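Record 1 of the preview.
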Amino acid sequence: MAFIPALNTAQVHVRTTLLSQQVENILYFENSDTIGAGDLITLCEYVGDWWNDHLKGNLSNQLTMREIYAVDMTSSTAPTGVDLTHNGVAGSQTSPAMPGNVTIAISFRTAGRGRSSRGRNYLPGMVEAGVSGNSIDNTYGALFVAAYEELISDPLTGWTWVVASFYANHSPRVTALLQPILSCGLSDNVMDSMRRRLPGRGS
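->
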């Protein structure tokens, strides 16, 4: 598959371990200038601190942080960065985690319309106490939405959190379409399932 650039944009991998399974979510950030290796490390530290300060408090202590890893998507040979500051740090909730494949989708919205203008993360490590039947509790779900909105309200200087679209009508773009994220929300309150997070199927 041919590389599709996203100019002056970093792809950030939030890598955690849940119930012995490696899981991750991806975020995109556009820089106002050319990205250097030091910029990527600073961005990784920012995302790591965001996870530690705003997200882990709502997650089970059966989930632990591994690393924050970033790739400059400007070219296929651009630099990478990593932050291990919070390696081994666990979620704060003592309630057992939901099974590894059980998740909820946090939706990212831009000013655009259509699938190319929306993004999402599938949260790992939610606790049983926050879920009733097939639905997430409204109050518990709102905590995750508020955590992600911190990336909008308290951005890292020089960086903008964006949705990056690499395809249009199933065809590769010449360069990725980048749109600033303006709001977050739950796609719905119904729990989702990710088969790749089952033991032996993911990374």
